[in-house]
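INPUT
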Amino acid sequence: MRDRVDEVSRRRFLLTAGVAAATVYGCRLSFAADVDPLLAGRQLVRYPEKTDLILLTARPPQLETPLSYFDRAITPNDAFFVRYHIFPIPTSVDLDQWRLEVKGHVDKPLSLSMDDLKRFPPASVTAVVQCSGNSRGRFAPRVLGGQWGDGAMGNAVWTGARLQDVLKAAGARASALDVTFDGLDKPAFPSVPDFVKALDLQRIMSDPDVIVAYEMNGQRLPMLNGFPARLVVPGWYATYWVKNLSEITVLTDRFEKFWMKPGYRIPDTPCGCVEPGTAPKNTVPITRMTVRSFIASPASGTRVAVNQPVALKGIAFDGGYGIREVQVSDNLGLTWSRATLGPDHGRYSFREWSATWRPTGAGNARLMVRAVNGIGESQGYEPLWNPAGYLRNVIEQIALVVD
Amino acid sequence: MRLLTAAVALTLVVTSAGVAGETVSITLPPESIALDAGRGMDQTQTSCRMCHSLDYITTQPGGGTAQWQGVVTKMMKVYGAPISDQDAKLIAEYLATHYGPR
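OUTPUT
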């Protein structure tokens, strides 16, 4: 039954793809914007502690990672995307002054210095952080909000203190329900809601991989990625990964302020989607990431030679079940062949993959990639839609020109 | 060495051990986006820039008066932007004219 649905969906996809295939692709190789209409005209900018990234907005800063960085499992710190919600953001932090307050429904409120935080047994996890609205600019019909391409994601080795150890040390009371997280970014006006996020206490206490990270790929965090510490919630979208963390508050009730409700919610349907252009009846907070995979190399629009092998490279990830398989297709999904998976960095990490493709004829070629996770979830031929532009996980493709 | 660029001042104060005494500072680059000239541009720039840079406008999908009126209303009602009803109308018209359906 599932295969049949898959086949119907593929045929419908082919009808649309026929139109898309007529698109003329440029052949300059320097930057994805050359072949990606969404990113065309976006500036490459260099922010402090960062390499050249694609500017989405300057204030608050939102910077996107070029797709070329996703040919490897670990995203370099200086290429890591940046996303803030409110302004001003912290631009100077003195570790002598900085404290992480742990308060609220606790027996022993804490005011932790960085040295205090580092006295907890260190824990490391390799995990993807991806903006809920990554690829929002590709939604059709279009939706308002940050018009990201595909680069609002990255994967790093995060090291820090386990959040459950911190909450145990503070004596968080069992009767508590939610725990909130606030950072040093503060709104310019009191009427603008402060960026505060919440996690269920039981969820935290049952998940040793949720950490307060002070290291990213073995170095201190860049300021724009949350120096001196940020929350790491493996498998869940970046909205929970509060940066420049300063306050943890244990609450006896549910926290439903702006960035939890009405912000960052998805339709309360099995797919988190609704009929394009319609509004959901009920919503729930966005949580776990969907399955995605990308071809990062060669870049879309690259010219390749007929009968010469082309090395395909990219990454795949999901919300914590791990990637079981990656497949590529050169015939719009009629047949799929299995890619070779790279080293396993754990179920929350990017999984590198590679494959070799040999073009047999000249002309425009289209290569597609899809992944399957540990519980059999995959990606569809047609994108799912919701009004906030979240959860994008359609099958991705590149266009190559074969000479 | 990479961190000791003009943009990043990393100061290591005298310290006995670990990371205590470290101050990290950055300077954000200036905003460079400008809006199209036209009636209502001044009010649009002044009101929108109170909270965010103007690329929040220019990167959005183009839209008609209904879209932009909705956006301006959201900024006023949800985020509390202090914009008069008269300016709100002018701003929505300006945006629909210059950042209309593409």
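end of record. The CA atoms of residues 136 and 142 of chain A lie 8 Å apart.
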